[in-house]
Design a protein that fits this description.
- This protein is an alpha+beta fold and 192 residues long.
- The chain is built from 2 helices and 10 strands.
- The chain has helices at 2-19, 49-62, and strands at residues 40-44, 97-103, 106-111, 115-120, 123-129, 132-141, 144-150, 156-163, 168-177, 180-191.
- It has a 10-stranded antiparallel β-sheet with strand order 4-3-2-1-10-9-8-7-6-5.
- A hairpin with a 2-residue loop joins strand 2 and strand 3 (106-111).
- It starts with a helix and ends with a strand.
């Protein structure tokens, strides 16, 4: 009887541990560094234009645009996860003209006057685009505004916005999945 009870407790413990959520993403600071204001209109430099193509390519690939409609008989099934399991790319926005509005507790980023993203300094929340949900943290780290978004499969989108002087802003964008870099771009914007 005691052995059966012990086995039952072990099974319950294993089931509960497998249902436990992932560790939360490390929080970012909600305190704006002295003198840092990202507000303004920003234009992507000509020599950074190729970065938007790289972003569009990764989004197309993640959406399966390069897959054939008819499966090839020579394709083998594998234990590798499907491309559509990585959903973090739906949270990635890009544009050539950004308008950033920095207020006391948050940041608004407008991409090509079409899409506006809102972030609250020091936020730690669940973000969604339609039915796709992801963990998100954002805030200040080493003088830059950092946004980290992690999808259900653990893929990470890491974006930073950093001033380089008064009239230049550097935006970096990385997507990491299974410790492999899927995207790593650096965009340079000039204040207009």
């Amino acid at each position: 009887m005691n052995l059966a009870r012990l086995v039952a407790l072990v099974v319950v413990a294993l089931l509960l541990s497998s249902c436990a959520g992932r560790d939360p993403l490390p929080a970012k600071s909600g305190t704006v560094p002295a003198g840092v204001d990202l507000s303004g209109r920003w234009q992507l430099r000509d020599d950074s234009q190729g970065t938007n193509k790289a972003i569009n390519d990764i989004q197309r690939e993640a959406a399966g645009a390069d897959e054939g409609l008819i499966p090839k008989s020579s394709r083998k099934t594998s234990s590798r996860k499907k491309k559509d399991d990585t959903q973090v790319h739906v949270f990635l926005e890009s544009g050539e003209a950004l308008k950033i509005t920095q207020v006391e507790h948050g940041l608004f980023v407008s991409f090509d006057r079409a899409i506006v993203e809102e972030y609250r300094f020091g936020e730690q929340r669940m973000a969604n685009v339609g039915p796709v949900y992801a963990d998100r943290v954002s805030g200040w780290e080493n003088g830059a505004y950092v946004i980290e978004t992690r999808d259900k499969e653990g893929a990470m989108l890491i974006e930073t916005y950093r001033l380089d002087g008064k009239d230049v802003m550097i935006r970096t964008i990385r997507i990491v999945d299974n410790k492999k870099s899927k995207l790593d771009v650096r965009q340079v914007f000039d204040r207009v």
